[in-house]
Amino acid sequence: MSNLPPCPQCGSAFTYEDAGQYVCPECAHEWPIHAGTDAGEEKAKVYRDSAGNVLQDGDTVTVIKDLKLKGSGGVIKQGTKVKNIRLVDSDHDIDCKIDGFGAMSLKSEFVKKV
Fold first, then answer.
1. Where's the Protein YjdM C-terminal domain (predicted)?
2. What is the pLDDT of residue 36?
3. CB under 8 Å to 91, separation ≥6 — which residues?
């Protein structure tokens, strides 16, 4: 006998796992395996700078090392202040505008909160 939960929509006991979710073969309802009592609450990702300080939207940060730009051949110098950052869920955590360079994405590991 399986320990899988019944379908929350139709109550069928014939649910199965597929690619990280439960599937009901009777009503075709799919739901994530990690769904539980806190299914509606999703933990927000915590973004930290190179020193471990928590970053938030609108913070001002300083670049901690020279960053070479792909494509243009320019360099963002160490100590450059970046104001009003926006945090995004991507491989580069920070979207910002840098004077003289324009819109840019940075990794949080290369900045320090001011």
1. 48-114
2. 53
3. 107
- The answer to whether position 78 is within a domain reads yes
Please give the pLDDT value at position 62.
97
CA proximity to 107, closest of 77, 73, 63: 63
What ranges in the chain are assigned the alpha helix state H?
A: none
- Kindly report, residue by residue over 45-79, the tens digit of the pLDDT: 899 999 999 999 999 999 999 999 888 788 999 99
What's the pTM? Answer: 0.62
99 within 8 A of 86, measured Cβ to Cβ: no
Residue type, 84: N
- Our count of domains for the chain comes to 2
Q: What is the rounded distance in angstroms from the CA atom of residue 99 to the CA atom of residue 73?
A: 16
